[in-house]
Design goal:
2 copies of one chain form a homodimer. The first copy, chain A, is α+β, with helices and mostly antiparallel strands. In chain A, 40% of the residues lie in helices and 20% in strands.
Chain lengths: 534, 534
């Protein structure tokens, strides 16, 4: 045996599998737990996102309560309660005590949670930093179950510490989850309060009560009706990877290619399916699992070539232009807002759509970098803006065309707020902490198109304000000299100065074309515009 | 049964576990595969990092060959060969065909790979985009094994397509791995060539031959000796989380607390262990797995309170100030470089150290944002700079103190290059693609301290250049008027003008204090410094 063989055999002994829970415990920052401030926000966010998903999916107007209390220095109790359908007793431990376990991963449907990592990740962090189990109270309307659980990290399995069952005379249903974790509490730009505020904005049909360290805040329901439930869909043939196609062919229940294409994909009718088979030179009655690798390649190519209509829109639940404009106006006190909701399109076979809202002037700060508000599937994103497809798209857009100044590679400058909402059956987050959207080329492109569309609409207004401003300047100038002009004219024409001045003022006021916009509004808008022309 | 119970039971049916391979296939961007350009770089990077690790761990001077060839439009064959110890036959399939499988996760030792996700992730992406298996050739010096494998995604298990065994008369050892994947090839700032160039810089003892689409490039070995092998260590008591402590207490082989503390941690001798037990008011002969939760909390607190020396340094392999300075000078042609290697410190119980090198002037571009070079465990980081602890630390450092201009929240401006090397037994990457370091507060702080230390040294030089520059300006001014002055003096003193001029020039030249720096060097440095004073 050579020396290398000895080393290789020694190394082989160290090779072993890593449990998913071990992986995320050691890499807790991947889930958003790299510092105590962010950790506390992440726990609230994960539990709240799940609560909203649960109620919404059961067609219940969400009633969410969030409690955050400091129990010791840098140590907090976090409780989130919802009025959703609850989780059945048998599945409770796995749903909360096993990472990568959930109902949302294997379907194509727009929802806040996706991976089955959120709640269990919060519990994992809590037990890592305080050693305490999580308490979960659940009822589906039958008896109430209260369990305390921890995660067995090396196995990634739940470990039940206690289990109580109680009667439920009022038929309460929902989930209450409580953990104790290390954290630090702040209010301000990146905070629990800001997250809840923005969540209330993008979910106006939810009532959210926040009971935090500094008192209670209630976000009342602004709308009494739920938006339509987004539908679960099948993948669209465009952009489906060959590896995925291969696996779909292996596991399909369809008995032939035509059945596979029409049954396992969206937007493929019988004639499209026949056309795909013809293009691929494949017998449409062939069994799906009998295709050779070469045939799969041909099929894959043909699927990209055939003309199909875009994905259905009912799998996505946009906020809509009205809500976007109202929300941004309320949040920023902008003077002018304009929103654009684009039609759905596809990346990697997943339908998605982009909505954009631009706010201008008003109480927006002057001479500063534009404010960016980011949302994915109605969830506000507070961190990692620098690493987000939305930021990339904003930077790559030429804002000088719309009247703003912009250095290369930077966000635009000016009295500008930019809201971007990315809605998809599958949001490609840059990390499991779900704070930024990955820069898939199709996604960046679509966001840019939305920004350009909104930018053009905004530019019209900015130009308008421009004309107004110049008129106002001229008028101001004339008004300033009005007494002197009147006096001179009075001397020449031997008419009383007073009447001349009154008449001149009348003429002047006729020149005002847009009277609806207040003087202050114009001034606010102006400085910014001036600057952006430099 | 209420309506909610029905819904809850319906939802329960959808709950199920997600395989790690499914998770990363759907989230391929987490591994660095969100677009074809980055995907190609990531494959090369993962295979090369593993190759370097393998050779280095077996104390072999690395000899790496990287081949990238376009086999069809947007489709590449990538092959990486090393001269490491190889992997034994039985473990080959798991080592490459199962995600989260490896030898590096469960130990505390500085290495490039960590999670057991790199090579298998590349294979997963390749099969997803081309449907092709990976080919792996391995020998430990005995027979040569050649296997073709794919990953069974829904099970996260290897699937062997073919296996050949061959004789090995030359006792070759190492790994050759080859995949075919979708990609796009570029050269420039973020490219395979740049990654290999920087890798050669931080691993001067490796020979790397690159055979790319545009021809061959060889990076010769600059040093003929391997650095000392970093040692595997035990966790340091500072910063170990209570959840981890609890698990360590459960699985330890030690029979009592004193044995646990001295045996399972680094830097805890008998007297420190006794002190910890005393502080925690615990019997030092108590069995580790019999501690109650309250006792674990006391122990945890006591471990943070007792005074211990810092972690051992031999678990880390810094580049060293000499190599850093040579490397940065060669890469940027800077006029002046200064490096700082800090002593190791701890985050979350993990020892780490920070090295920084600053380059100034010379051929560095003027009037631009400082260039940032980032390394983690000798691996260059090319992406996600905006999301990296290194960038955060650079932004939070006040560069105006060292003679550079800087807007708030931005990188400094000027003829400045900043190289940062983070070395740790555990690098907390912001995502599995390993392109940025997570902003743990202890890490950001330590990087800032290193930058400040180097910044102060650089400032001395910058000030020096300052004095020189002013002297040069004065001299230039005087020289310009020399003919006039000489003429005037000649008239007054009735001496030949020529001799006066020569004598004046002599006096002038005595004033030059630093003659070693060339005139061009000064001018290069000046414009930048001027600007930074604004």
């Amino acid at each position: 045996m050579t020396e290398q063989t000895v080393i290789a055999e020694e190394l082989a002994k160290q090779l072993r599998a890593v449990s998913v829970a071990e992986f995320f415990e050691k890499n807790r920052h991947l889930l958003g737990y790299e510092n105590p401030t962010k950790a506390l926000i992440t726990i609230v966010k994960e539990f709240t996102d799940n609560a909203l998903d649960a109620a919404e999916e059961a067609r219940i107007l969400p009633d969410i309560k969030v409690v955050v209390k400091e129990v010791a220095p840098d140590r907090f109790k976090v409780r989130v309660e919802d009025n959703g359908p609850g989780i059945v007793e048998e599945k409770l431990p796995l749903a909360f005590g096993k990472l990568l376990y959930g109902s949302k991963f294997h379907r194509l449907k727009m929802s806040r949670g996706t991976q089955g990592l959120g709640a269990s990740g919060g519990i994992l962090y809590a037990q890592l930093t305080t050693g305490r189990p999580a308490k979960i109270i659940s009822s589906t309307g039958k008896e109430i179950h209260e369990i305390e659980l921890m995660i067995d990290v090396s196995k990634n399995e739940p470990k039940i510490i206690s289990h109580k069952e109680e009667k439920n005379p009022n038929k309460w249903h929902g989930i209450k989850i409580e953990v104790e974790a290390e954290g630090r509490y702040i209010e301000g730009k990146q905070s629990i309060l800001e997250y809840l505020k923005q969540t209330a904005m993008s979910n106006p049909y939810a009532k959210i009560v926040y009971d935090g360290p500094n008192g209670k805040v209630e976000f009342e329901r602004a709308v009494k009706e739920l938006p339509p439930l987004p539908k679960e869909i099948k993948p669209h043939p465009y952009g489906v990877e060959i590896g995925l196609l291969r696996r779909m062919l292996e596991i399909t229940n369809a008995r032939n290619l035509i059945g596979f294409l029409t049954g396992d994909f969206s937007r493929v009718g019988r004639s499209s399916a026949l056309q795909i088979c013809k293009l691929a030179k494949l017998d449409c009655n062939k069994k799906p699992n009998e295709l050779t690798h070469g045939e799969i390649e041909l099929l894959h190519k043909a699927m990209q070539m055939v003309k199909l209509i875009g994905p259905p829109t009912d799998c996505l639940s946009p906020l809509g232009e009205k809500l976007l404009e109202e929300g941004l106006k309320k949040e920023t006190k902008a003077e002018f807002v304009v929103a654009v909701t684009r039609s759905p399109t596809v990346y990697r076979g997943n339908p998605f759509l982009v909505e954009v809202c631009l706010g201008f002037g008003g109480e927006l700060p002057q001479d500063q970098t534009a404010q960016l508000f980011r949302f994915a599937n109605k969830v506000p994103l507070l961190y990692h803006a620098g690493d987000c497809a939305t930021t990339e798209a904003v930077i790559e857009t030429d804002w000088r065309r719309y009247g703003f100044s912009q250095s290369s590679g930077q966000l635009p400058q000016g009295q500008l707020a930019i809201l971007i909402h990315f809605a998809s059956v599958w949001v490609p987050y840059t990390s499991e902490g779900k704070q930024a959207i990955a820069s898939y080329p199709e996604i960046v492109k679509e966001i840019k198109l939305a920004l350009q569309e909104a930018g053009r609409k905004l530019a019209t207004y900015v130009r308008h304000k421009n004309i107004e401003r110049e008129r106002a300047l001229r008028q101001n100038l004339f008004e300033r000299y009005l007494p002197e002009v009147s006096a001179a004219l009075s001397e020449i024409s031997e008419t009383p100065r007073n009447s001349i001045e009154i008449n001149l003022k009348k003429i002047l006021n006729k020149g005002k074309v847009i009277e609806s916009v207040k003087e202050e509004g114009i001034e606010d808008g102006e400085e910014n515009r001036n600057e952006s022309e430099e």
